[in-house]
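Would you mind writing out a protein's amino acid sequence and the numbers that encode its backbone to help me picture the idea?
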Amino acid sequence: MSKQITKIEYDGYTYEEGGVCAAKGFRANGLNCGLNPNPNKNDLGLVVSDVICNAAAVYTQNKVKGAPILVTKKHLTATNGKCKAVIANSKNANTCNADGEEKAAKMAALVAAKLGIKTEEVAVASTGVIGQILPIEPIETHMDALVAGLTYDGNTRANEAIMTTDTVTKQVAVSFVIDGVTCHLGGMAKGSGMIHPNMATTLNFITSDVAISAEMIQKALDEIVKVTYNCLSIDGDTSTNDMVLVMANGQAANQEITLADANFAIFKQALYIVMSNMTKMLAKDGEGATKLLECECKGAPDLDTAITVAKSVICSPLFKCAMFGEDANWGRILCAIGYADASFDIDKVDVSLASKKGIMPVCQNGAGVAFSEEFAKELLAEDEIQILVDLGQGESAAKAWGCDLTYDYVKINGDYRS
């Protein structure tokens, strides 16, 4: 299937090329340092701002946390939310290692020494196999080349450096206006498996040239991650290394955003656009996936109920298998709705299936309705499927994203370490 998602247009926002380099003053690079034995695959990436940034992050809530997570949290705390660069590697998660924090801190120190900045101004991220010692020597010997190769259009090289089982890069950027000046916000993501976040998803780096305080970035990130990355599930496994880092360097020269005012709303909407699109990209590129699944739950009594129901459907292995088989087995949807940890009247629930081919009601007021099996097959043959749930018990709505569960998922994870 095509891995390109169907983007939604938003008034006042324009999609741009460039990913993490779309915003003014950000350079990036990626290369192969030898962590990945395939010399044609990048495994070490770097994103650097020309000036210090205000920054905020969210991290995995798995009790097992990668060493880079621990080091990055310490650095952002020590600088009161200041950051100038982030270095990331793939192939090795640097997790569950006795020397993990030492190696992660060393990565930051190597970047800092080369850039002439403080070690605490460097964030660190890693992804790959858990429990294998991270060799620091390849990273150290390639630091000169990594920094020398930084360019204002190096976003794709950096994105390729954090890919593991991903089959495509995942980048989104938008431009918009604040205080009469054009601003940008863009990001890159990686992730294909071990995705079931509870505050973040995989590795995600977002940059902006908006002038905004670290406190307001954190507020926006906390609010948007709840309705984007936290509404994503590929396989029900929460990674040890999940991180979302947002860096804003103020180069757009708008008046700094320090309050939840109209300008903050514009910034937060840009963040939503980028993060929701990257969430869909992650879902569509799930390991072995052939279909992007989007469940929209509306008519809920509150937002948390809408999220819980939508995620319950997306997380159901039986439903995911039915979508792979293009089987309109809507009973599995009702089953998943029924065990969702939320309060509502199941006898008021309506469900429809939809795609580019059209829309097909399958359940009304908690009971099945007649439908054409032939049309159902045609509808479910598309590579983007929507599950539309109406609880009929309120005004709140939410979406969740995932993918089908296929034979290839098992094959990929049966020999992941190789």
Remarks:
- The longest helix spans residues 262-284.
- The chain has twelve helices and 15 strands.
